Amino acid sequence: MYRYDEFDTRIVKERVEQFRGQVARRLSGELKEDEFKPLRLQNGVYLQLHAYMLRIAIPYGQLNPRQMRALAEIARKYDRGYGHFTTRQNIQFNWVALKDIPDVLADLADVEMHAIQTSGNCIRNVTSDHYAGATKDEVMDPRPWCEIIRQWSTFHPEFAFLPRKFKIAVTAAEHDRAAIKVHDIGLNMRRKDGEVGFEVHVGGGQGRTPHIAAKVSDFVPESELLDYLEAIMRVYNRFGRRDNKYKARIKILVSETGEEEFRKLVEDEFAAQRTAEKIALPQEEIDRIHAYFEPPKLAAKPANSESFEKAKTADAGFARWTRANLHPHKVDGYTTVTVSLKPMGVAAGDATDDQMDVMADLAESYGHDDIRVSHAQNVVLPHVALDDVYELYRKLDAAGLATPNEGLISDMIVCPGLDYCNLANARSIPVGMAIQEAFSDPDDQADIGKFHINISGCINACGHHHVGHVGILGVDRKGEEYYQITLGGRADEKAAIGQMAGPGLKADDVPVALKRLVDRYRELRSSKDETFIETFEREGMEPFKDAIYAGA
Amino acid sequence: MPLIKDRREVDDIWAYVPDEADLSPGGCITVSLARFRSETELLLARNTEIGVRLEPADDPHELEEFLDRLTLIEIDFPKYTDGRGYSQAQLLRRRMGYEGELRAVGHVLRDQILYMNRSGFDAFETERAELPSVLDALEEFSAVYQPAADERVPVFRRRHGKD
What we know:
The complex is a heterodimer of chains A (552) and B (163). With 552 residues, chain A is of the alpha+beta class. Chain A is built from 18 helices and 21 strands. Chain A has 4 domains: 6-110, Sulfite Reductase Hemoprotein, domain 2 (Alpha-Beta Complex); 127-291, 2-Layer Sandwich (Sulfite Reductase Hemoprotein, domain 1); 306-347 and 354-374 and 385-398, no CATH class; 413-549, 2-Layer Sandwich (Sulfite Reductase Hemoprotein, domain 1), CATH 3.30.413.10. In chain A, helix 16 (510-524) packs across helix 17. The termini of chain A are far apart. In chain B, helix 4 links the parallel strand 7 (101-106) and strand 8. Chain B has an 8-stranded mixed beta sheet with strand order 2-1-8-7-6-5-4-3. By secondary structure, chain B is α/β, with parallel strands linked by helices. The A-B interface holds A 5, 7-8, 10-11, 14-15, 17-18, 22, 35, 38-39, 121, 151-152, 154-162, 234, 237-238, 242, 272-274, 276-277, 279, 281-282, 284-285, 288 and B 56, 80-84, 86-87, 90, 94-95, 109, 111-112, 114-116, 118-119, 140-148, 155-160, 162.
């Protein structure tokens, strides 16, 4: 993984000192709250319902064990013993005191981490495929270019006060696990005639007005990527709407301008760049960054592991877990393990300090020091030998980290909702837990197969409800919480926005309605291999809508 | 209002003339882009130096053919959270090669001055920031990740001994 050099270290430490000064000026009253707000936001500090919340970047989702332990230590020392992994490869701490935040940031800097630009109207943490560098289905490893984008966007002087927040995601795999089509910019890495380049999608997003991104370019060669991104950013910074917060994202600029015209604006801006304006990243620098992402040295092993197969036969719980939580590795004899942060009765994405320590230890013992966090709020150990999987499983299980549900119905994306967030209209966590309860039987979950339920407690859609196979949106109607159901959304390469099934349901009615929906799917599926989303796309809304409202 | 230019506090010899006011016969003045557009001949014929003040929605390209006749361009930040002025500045400096004074006016705060400076501003009209704190702000980072109008050498070149 990338390691800071003297420049990176200095810049991050200088950032800590800068923020320390800003906090001191705020606490002394020299800075007014409205002047302080964007400064704290660009350091990941939000004012939430109960306290300040600190959001820390995990660039493109990669951590080493030392960093994971530092997060555990922050949870212990400054918070209430846990952290919350988010849908954008960040981790949030909900109970940190403002006066302590500069010290937390200093602790992070010691392990090459930061909270820079994790909030505010600037370019946010760059996200990517959590299986990058390990998965069979990738054309190349996207992380080096994520790191290049991270550096370019850090303290970019022109783009710190954009009309609204700005999110970039990068994938290089056939199957899009980074949700690039619902990002402000989504990049899909390609190879054309031996040259590496990027397919560029712009203007995707969720929130009040969900949009699937428009393809703006089929192929931007890597040597021109940063210049092309600057062109997009400048067009957005100059022409994006600033009169209405809810119309300020780039998706609105793209849709109001029209795809064709928007593309022309970008192309014209790009064409107008003079040689002196070009970023001209030296090849040595591109090579330097790529060198950090060399694959780990994995000892040659046979494709099949006898001990692994034996353990599966002997331990049914292990066998079930392997069916859900392993992903094919590009090297024979190895696999990629998902550590589910979605056990029953725990808020999605939460991990305790001890669990973080356990994951750090296990990544050291079995995982070549590599840890990822996924946009589905789980943790991933990308490189594990099949021979080691059973031992790893038993240790995870002992720490409550072996829930066998990756991608299954109980592996939901859930925003913090009204329990924590001051934007929310309704609670999300209890509804998610009630659904987990309704589908608690692991055999039943395995039979249902791939099934993504996403829950948001308000229209801002932090729980990604628009792109859940089933989306659940909490709304407030005259002081009572209702939940609207959408069907058919997806965030992958076939990205689609879910369609509203009908009127909102009361919280208590949601699990039973979903039970009926799932039963209908089981009746209709052409075989056990046809997933819910495939059946939905074949059959359409009607039968599922009937099932949801059959009890009404 | 206090004016900081090239890292020193200086006297402001310029006056902005609002659109509805008559042009004073002498002195250095700035006018809006709209006024400059409608009274270009008259303004350029004056014996005094002339400047233009851009608002966030203004297109700086409209000034391109007059840049060598302008001594000052002011870029207004009615709200400091409106970042369009940073792009206007970069365009004027890097795209069009403007070399005169580029002054940030309006809601100009200490903690934005570094980004303004990197985007090409060399002067700041600010009530809220004293000179020492502005100088501190400009020195907060010893390295930068990207090229900008200030021509600091980015780390991706320094790492390889290029400057």
